[in-house]
Input
Amino acid sequence: LIYTSGTTGKPKGVMLSHNNIFSNVLGAAEITPCKVYDRGLTFLPPCHAYERMVLYTYMYLGFTIHIAESFDKIGDNLKEVKPHIMTVVPRILEKVYEKIMKTGHELTGFKRKIFDWAVTVAEEYDPNPAKRSFAYTMKLKLAKQLVLNKWYEALGGELLTVASGSASLHNRLTRAFLAAGIPLYEGYGMTEASPLISVNHYMKGVRIGTVGLPVRFVEIKLAEDGEILVKGPNVMIGYYKNKAETDKTIIDGWLHTGDIGKWEDEKFLKIIDRKKEMFKISGGKYVIPQPIETKLVESKFIEQAMVIGDGMKFASAFIVPNYAHLLDWAKNDAPELADMTKEDFLTNPVIIKKVNQEVRRANQHFGNWEQIKKPIILRDEFTVENGELTPTLKMKRKVILEHHQEEFNNLYQMETD
Output
């Protein structure tokens, strides 16, 4: 009995049988390129369906399981354990990437230029060798020798798989890690499916920007409105003492995920958004938050973003700036700001202008009705401790909106006036 995280409503008790979970373990084991006695490092909550299934898979395959001491000590634990496999959520990989970037930006002169060049090469990486030119292959080889191999070594130097799930990973980061030889497996699932549904993995092909192919025993189809439907032995028994919700979620044996998807090349599943998170602006146009949020946080100056505006004239977003990167930028471009307090710094017109420039850059990828207008810049990060993130670092949209209702009202009231 595992309760959902409650990102879109009240948590529900998901009833999973031994057979539900074991079918998922068999599907995961089939695509895990490790052997008996290999080392797994884990630091996600074991009460979460994703981590629980992973731990069972480790046991089934005969791995040695190492439990990380804390998030702050992951770097030390990686060096100690030298894992062959570990599980993460995108937010953790984003933090790792930010730390790499921060270390690189502390370099000066020729070393800094080499680092920046290697990052640019990494972010252009395509996992399909046929799509990489000879010139790019040579550049990648040099970038690895000079910079990128150090990234792999920093994660222990023996990784065969880094399994990422729970939320989408933005493409720039995926390309950079793959270029550095860090083998990312991006998966998709939900507690009600035990939880694994599909995975991007290298035994049967990978497509960046998708969540790959269905795992063994799992069948996927898309409803007319694009909702992802799942059938298989992994689908839950139902919700604990909640037949009404069970009957709305499992119809004719098909689990209605509440996620909107599409197929790429007729076989790779791409997640577009949560059905419940889609909203209409007052003009009648639909806004799908997730791709907009993903594009926004591709900017190194934006730490977190949540799109808002249900029923309003336009879409906006709560933006949490990346203080460290903005401070680094200000040292060269606005040195008069460098000694300010964090609060004064983030509310300074120069910084607000810089963040808005990054928002406009992201807006170029979307239709006029989807573009973020008048973003609300917040000072404090969304965290698990303040109740705005789940234990696997998903945003609790309702809670975030409640916490920042005043800013929301001020923005749209101003527009009404």
Summary: DSSP finds 14 helices and 20 strands in the chain. The longest strand covers residues 254-264. The chain has three domains: 34-182, 187-276, 278-416. Residues 34-182 form a domain with the Rossmann fold fold (CATH 3.40.50).
